[in-house]
Amino acid sequence: MTQLLQKLGMPAPAAAHGPALDDFVGYVHVLMLILFVGWLAYYLLALYRFRQSANPKADYTGVKSHMSTYLEIGVAVVEVVLLVGFAVPLWARAVDEFPVAKGDPKTDPIEVQIMGQQFKWSAHYAGPDNKWGKQEIKSASATNPFGLDANDAAGKDDVVCALGEPFKLPLGRAIICKISSMDVIHSFKLTAMRVTQDAIPGMTIPAHFTPTKVDKYVITCAQLCGSGHAVMRGDFEVISPEDFDKWYAEKAKSGGAGSFE
User: Fold this and answer.
1) Considering its fold, how many domains does the chain have in total?
2) Which of 1, 169, 218, 254 is the most buried (most CB within 10 A)?
3) What is the DSSP letter of 156?
4) DSSP string of 98-118?
5) pTM: predicted TM-score of the whole model, two decimal places
């Protein structure tokens, strides 16, 4: 199904849960295609069989057959199979079951705060010390979307990619994005990762995925958010774990929260 969807214009999945999601979407569309063809054929058959020339007098009894009932039951069974056998397990795996830290800094999930604002995306990592810098709503501004306290020692090594600056993620490692907005409702959409999550002011909503392909990707906004909605994008790159460690260490030296002083 994944290859078929790619031929129809869908970009190749770049997250661990992507192929399963594509398969499910494909199965749903196959069912819809079968129903469309079936009902169209039935409609044409009814037009021909019950045309006026062949039935000059109306028959108020109609056709006596249980075929329609059997077909409806069959469709219901297929829908239940898709729901219980595919949709529910996929939702549990791709949405509800978040990766859990096990104490290994090399394999534990990486948490990234994502902030949407008109009309850019920003990212914030805890830094090598794994301690988030102090954040205050009153300190948030157009140039400091996370409200970072420049005087907080824990934030000095935080990795901040603000105002559309590209950020990076390691290949094969679980990523937990904590998504919010500082102005209106946005929608954090990573098409290649098969991730879409609304960014709502005053709320932090998590989403997770595991990158499986090294490449450059684009974040788009899937929610009409103002006059600049069409150009609201962000850029990020999936790189090898070794290259990520180098970039992360170098980025942490740039001042973190202190860069907003």
Assistant:
1) 2
2) 169
3) T
4) -----S-TTTSPEEEEEEEET
5) 0.84
